[in-house]
Amino acid sequence: MKTLEFDFKKREYVEKKDFWQSADLAGYTGSLLMVIFAFTMIPQIAIAGLSLLTVQSVERKMHNLTVLNAISIIGFFSQIF
User: Fold this and answer.
1) Are 50 and 30 a contacting pair, CB within 8 Å?
2) CA triple 30-69-63, angle to 5 deg
3) Which residues have C-beta within 8 Å of that of residue 69, sequence separation ≥ 6?
4) In 3D, which of 51, 41, 40, 42 has the Cα closest to residue 74?
5) Alpha-carbon distance 4 to 51, whole Å?
6) How far is CA 70 from CA 32, 49, 81, in A?
7) Burial of 38: CB neighbours in 10 Å, binned 0-12, 13-18, 19+
8) Contact predicate 7/17, CB 8 Å
């Protein structure tokens, strides 16, 4: 069943996204991985977490965070190789 919500920016009703199909799930999972990284310091976990957070930042059009995440991913890759 489709549910609608009012988008104040667009000033119209849009289809409400299901949480499990949205970028929010990727964001929460990425945040959890970054918390795990803080205690383990394993760069592969940080790369996975930042990649998932990048999905959310792209969907929300937060380009400054997208660039920051991309630079951080490159930095963590350089730690591995």
Assistant:
1) yes
2) 110
3) 50, 51, 53, 54, 57
4) 51
5) 29
6) 18, 12, 17
7) exposed
8) no
Q: Give the confidence band of 20 by pLDDT, cuts at 50, 70, 90.
A: low
Contact assessment for residue 57 and residue 66, using Cβ atoms and an 8 Å cutoff: yes
CA atoms within 13 A on the CB side of 43: 10
CB-side neighbour CA atoms (13 Å) of 29:
15
Give the pair of three-digit tokens for residue 66: 């997208």
Tens digit of each residue's pLDDT (9 = 90 or more) over 40-77: 999 999 999 999 999 999 988 899 999 999 999 999 99
